[in-house]
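Dear support,

I submitted the protein below through the web form. The confirmation email said the job was done, but the results page showed an empty box. After a refresh the structure appeared. I'm attaching both so you can tell me whether what I see now is the final result or a partial one.
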Amino acid sequence: MRNKVNPRANKETKRLKTYLGCVKRDIERKVENPNIRLKSLLEISERILTQSKNKIYSIHSLEVECISKGKSYKRC
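What the results page shows now:
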């Protein structure tokens, strides 16, 4: 989201990413051998924190895509 359009949304997004980063580091520090499910969630969380392209729009169903302005041919 652009800063001038909705600064409150950007502030909340930053806050959520900070919280996600803290929880992710805490889990990595406390769990020595994560199982397959936890490892995949940690990979998704890393991708969320560093995303600029190939964005994740839904954690639970990864086949969700962005449709910009209601037009399927537009890129987000």
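Response: this is the final, complete result; the empty box was a page-load delay. The first helix runs from residue 7 to 30.
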